Structure formats: structure tokens, C-alpha cells
Amino acid sequence: VQLVESGGGSVQAGGSLVLSCKVSGDDIDTACVAWFRQAPGKERERIANIATGAGRTYYADSVKGRFTIPRDVSKTTVFLQMVDLQPDDTAMYYCAAGTRIIVGDYCDGITDWGQGTQVTVS
User: Fold this and answer.
1) In the chain, is it the N or the C terminus that has fewer CB atoms within a 10 Å radius of its CB?
2) Spatial separation of the C-alpha atoms in residues 95 and 49, rounded to whole Å
3) C-beta of residue 83 within 8 angstroms of C-beta of residue 68
4) Residue 30 has pLDDT above 80, yes or no
5) Which DSSP symbol is given to 69?
């Protein structure tokens, strides 16, 4: 599976961005798509994911109420809509494909990653 992110950029605090993750290739085993982020000097953080079938979603507490993870009708692109961005949201954002949903609606069994897109909030 190939994943390509786009939509990153620089915004002021309180602003909004929409990231896109285009999924292509042999996705027969893909059960979910997740968004992660990693800031310099910090561990990678799972922030949201969506099941490709039923569309169940998961959000980390750090983004709940501010970020949503819709997808297009064809289910080939997953978005990350981000509002009320804060400097703590500054990070490289990655999407990833997973093979199963586990307890807590976590997207697990990550097999492929995108190259990442930078989000900077000042």
C-alpha cells in the first residue's frame, strides 16, 4: 500500500488546516488508516484513526474535539481536519495503513507509512 500525505504548512495559533492521505495500491488487507505525529525530541503519537469498512474512529485526548478524520466517498483518501491549532500541535504528521482494529478502536498492525507532512503553528 502506498500512502501520500499533503496539506501541511504554517499557520497561526487558532488557525485550521486539512491534511490529506491518498491511499493506493493493493489495499485488500488494509482495515484502517491512522494519523500519527512526531515533534522534535518527542515520541511518535497516534492522534486519530478510521476503520476502512464501518468507519469507526478513534481520537487521542490531545486532539479530541479539535481534529476529525473524514474520508472521501471512494474511500481512497483520508483527511485530517484540524481546527484551533496550537503551538503544541507543531509536528511532522504521518498517515499509516493498518491491518486490524483492536480494543479501543485502535488501528493496529501498521504495515505502511507515508512520507509525512510538516505542520507548524506559531
Assistant:
1) C
2) 9
3) no
4) yes
5) -
Displacement of CA 9 from its chain's centroid (Å): 15
Cell (9 digits) for 4: 501520500
Instruction: Round to whole Å and give the CA distance between 70 and 81.
Output: 8
- Say how many residues make up the chain: 122
Are the C-beta atoms of 19 and 3 separated by less than 8 Å?
no
Yes or no: say if 57 and 46 are a contact pair by the CB < 8 Å rule.
no
Contacts of 114 (CB under 8 A, 6+ apart): 3, 4, 5, 21, 94, 95, 96
95 residue type, one letter = C
pLDDT score of 75 more than 90: no
72 pLDDT higher than 80: no
Single-letter amino acid, residue 97: A
SS3 at position 89? helix
Give the type of residue at 9.
G
Q: Which residue's C-alpha cell is 503519537?
A: 45
